[in-house]
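For consistency, the fold was encoded as C-alpha cells, which produced the following:
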Amino acid sequence: RGDLLVEVNVARHPIFQRQDMNIFSTAPITFAQAALGGDVKISTVDGDVLYTVKPGTQTDTKIRLKGKGMPGTGGGEAGDLLLNITVTAKPGWERNEMDVYSTVRIPFTTAVFGGEALVSTLYGNVLCKIAAGTQSGTKIKLKGKGIVSMKNPSIHGNQYVTVQIDVPNHLTPEAEQKLREFEHACGLNKNRQGGPNGRSAA
C-alpha cells in the first residue's frame, strides 16, 4: 500500500499570531491605566493573567510575558507572549508625551467677572481661578498634573486646560434687558447690525 499524506493547515487565531514558539498579540488599555498604571487582564493561551502596567505607558509599548507562548515540545521551554500596547482614547482628552490636554466650560458671567472653575485632572478635581475678562480659548497650565515619566517617577508632565465659554441660548426678558444695558454701558452696540430683535434695520 501507498502512504497517506495529510496536509495540515493551522487556522489563523483572531487575537494571537504565532512565530515559532512565540505568540504576538495586542493589549488594549484605558487612558487612565496608561497614565497612572495598574493591573490589566491579559489573555493568553493558558487563560487570563494580571499584568501590572507601569505609569506613563504609551501606545506601541512592548511587553514580554515569558513562558506564556506555545508549550514547549519534547520537554523544551515554552515560548513567550509578546504584546503591543494600544491606549484607548478618552473623550475630551489628548496626550502628547507626558503632557495632557483637556477643556473646561465656564458660564459667560464667570468669564466677565472672574471666579473659579472645577477642572478634572488625572488625580482628581481641582479649583482653578478664572481671571475677570477671560476669553474663550484661554489656556490654563496645571503644573505637575500630567503623566509621570517612565524613566524618572519624580518627573511629571503638565496639564493644559482650554477655557470654553458657555453662551446662554435662552434669556428671560429681564435678563435680556439687563444684557442690553450692559452692552450699551460698555459701548459694545456701536457696530451691531440690526434692530432690537437682531433683524436688519430697514
